[in-house]
Amino acid sequence: MTISTHRRMTLQEYLNYDDGTDTRYELVNGVLVKMGAESALNISIAFFLAMTFAQLGIPPYRIGNKHLIEVSSSAVTAREPDLTVHSEASYEAVISEKQSLLRYDKPVPLLVVEVVSPGEPGEPNYDRDYVEKRREYAQRGIPEYWLIDPLRQLVLVLTLEGDSYREQRFTEQEAISSPTFPQLNLTAERVLNAGR
What we know:
There is one protein chain. Helices cover 27% and strands 24% of the residues. It is of the alpha+beta class. The chain has a single domain, classed as Alpha-Beta Complex (tt1808, chain A), CATH 3.90.1570.10. The strands form three sheets. The protein has a six-stranded mixed sheet with strand order 3-6-8-9-10-11, sandwiched between helices. The chain has a three-stranded mixed sheet with strand order 5-4-7. Strands 1-2 form a two-stranded antiparallel sheet. The longest helix has 17 residues, at 124-140. The termini are far apart.
């Protein structure tokens, strides 16, 4: 749901915004967009992946939950991935900020992960993750973007080639292939079931 305002917000206004509730928003083209409540499964998938990356030797401090990433759009936009695996440089950039924000002119993370909320093509949830964020993260230069879609029982690994992503699809017992993390030993089914 988009929150109507008389004018578009700046990034700093967004970072300082507090409506007195616990409602979370992303800033999209200068407009607040209310983020829906996360399902328990979506949260569990992100947590499972965070633990998996830690077991691969990624220092826990470089595994971010809900770190904002400033992306290019027709106006100011800040996205909040479900999971971010930082490079040392992107972590240093985030930690140096007052708020958890990776500014546009700073180094990119190694990976961002979005756990998709239910939706069909043309609906806001679907278009946000499959179309808008895909374009924005590619323009930002993020080398790898995962879409975890529990409804479709699908894991997409998107690898940046030039200015767009090459897509690999993984389902059921297929082993996920990640160019950034070649030592990864996970099936799509295990991710989609949060390690169960």
